[in-house]
TrEMBL record:
Part of an enzyme complex containing four subunits: a flavoprotein, an iron-sulfur protein, plus two membrane-anchoring proteins, SdhC and SdhD. Keywords: Electron transport, Heme, Iron, Membrane, Metal-binding, Transmembrane, Transmembrane helix, Transport, Tricarboxylic acid cycle. This is Succinate dehydrogenase hydrophobic membrane anchor subunit. Pathway: Carbohydrate metabolism; tricarboxylic acid cycle.
Amino acid sequence: MREPVVTREMIADPKTKYGDARASTRHFFLQRLSGASNILFTAFLIFIVVRLAGAGRADVVGLIGNPFVGIPFAILFAIVCFHMSIGMNEVIEDYVGEARSNRLAVSLNAFFALAVGVVGAVSILKIVFWG
C-alpha cells in the first residue's frame, strides 16, 4: 500500500491532518527534555574530561569507580544515546522516502541506540560496582 503523496499545499494548510500530532508532540518534548538534561550534564562531563586529562588507567578507574561520579556518568551516557535516537529518527523520517525503508531504518536506529546505550552504561556501572 502506497502512502498518499503529500503536497506543499497540504502541509501549508492548517486544516489538513499531516502526521500524528501526539507522536510529534511527544518527540518534540522528549528531545527538548533530553537536550536540556544534556546541557546540565555537560559541566559534569567537562569535569570528568579535565580531571582525567593525562591520567593513567588506574586514575580513570578510580574516578569513574566512585559511585558519585560513575552513576551520573552512566545516566548521562544513556540520556545521550536516547537523544541521539530521537534525533536520528527525525532525520530518517524526513529523508528516507519509502515507508518500508523508513520502518527498517527506524528499527535499526532504535536497536543501535539501545545497544550502544546498554553496552556503555553497563560498562560504566561495571567499573563502579566491580572495579
